[in-house]
Amino acid sequence: MKLKGKTIAVTGASGMIGVYICRSLLAAGASVIGVVRNPAKADFLAKEGVTFRKADLNDPAALTAAFQGCDAVVANAALYIVQKSMGAWDAHEKANLDGTRNVMEAAQSAGVKRIVQISTFGIYRWSVLRTLTEESPQLNGAKRQGGAYRATKQTSEALAWNLAQQLKLDLTTLRPTAVYGARDNNCLRPIYQLLRAPLLPMPSIRFPVVYAGDVADAVTGALANDVSIGQAYNVGGADIQVAELIKAIGERVPKKRRIFALPLPIGIRIDNAKAARDLGFRNRPFAEGIQQVLKEDQLPRYLAG
């Protein structure tokens, strides 16, 4: 699909990854419809050219109306709750599983055939013994393996593939590793909290993290290349020591923190070769990505003192 002049709907456009997806699509010449519950949450995107339509993942009629006139839908919205709670399973299933069904069926009802779904590498059975490829064994989400988020993302991607076949939709799924970016409440905020301590000793394993802007460009690459239809792609970062990641952030704050790492010779590795070939995926070095993030976040204030 040539993106210039096309209209693309992005669910969860006001979220961390969604903002980057909108910007990447705008840069490619597309018109972007942000489908969100609260447009005021990302009014800065409206100034950049995004048009908002209000809809909830659990409101099929509103989703169908929001997708009218669009050439493709990026199914990005999902729920990720770090802390455990009594209602965590129900909340994740409602957003990630029921939400997937509603988005796919609404797209079909609105006459939209092309879908890109943001999944996660969390659907795999992680192992330090082998590199994860798109064919690696997956969790059994139906048996709640991996916790509420990973399990419901596994079942939601499986559901998306089944619905794509039933509804005759052209689907691509992307499986990012841990994603960091500006306005990040999941990956970076815990690190910002850790850096409040003046001394930080820690063991460290290798783990892949990826810049949200690179994931967003993979979305654009998938829509631009019809070879991606019917395919799943790993879009992950190079595996780096977690302590080195924290050090890279700590070196960019005014008040230096002393971080002592105990590197361990184990880690999670992921193969991005397929995405690099078909989508033009590039995983920028962490030092480059975090510099962009801290510039946009204007450095959390409690790290400046």
Task: Based on the model shown, name its key terms.
four-stranded mixed β-sheet; globular; seven-stranded parallel β-sheet; Rossmann fold; alpha/beta
Task: Provide an overview of this structure.
This protein has 305 residues and is an alpha/beta fold. It has a single domain (7-183, 209-236, 268-284), classed as NAD(P)-binding Rossmann-like Domain (Rossmann fold). Helices cover 38% and strands 21% of the residues. The chain is built from ten helices and eleven strands. Helix 5 links the parallel strand 5 and strand 6 (170-176). Helix 1 packs across helix 7 and helix 4 runs parallel beside helix 5. The termini are far apart. 43% of the residues are buried.
The gross shape turns out to be globular
- Total E-strand runs: 11
Q: Which secondary-structure class do the elements indicate? A: alpha/beta
Average pLDDT taken over every residue: 88
Characterize the largest beta sheet: strand count, sense, and whether it forms a barrel. Answer: 7 strands, parallel
CATH topology: Rossmann fold
How far is the first residue's CA from the last residue's CA? 49 Å
Named at the architecture level, the CATH assignment is 3-Layer(aba) Sandwich
Give the name of the CATH superfamily.
NAD(P)-binding Rossmann-like Domain
- Beta fraction: 15-25%
CATH class assignment: Alpha Beta
- What's the structural domain tally? 1
Percent helix range: 25-40%
Tally of helical runs: 10
The helix-strand sequence is: EHEHEHEHEHEEHEHEEHEHH
Main sheet strand line-up = 3-2-1-4-5-6-9
Low-confidence stretches: none
Q: Radius of gyration, Cα only, in angstroms? A: 19 Å
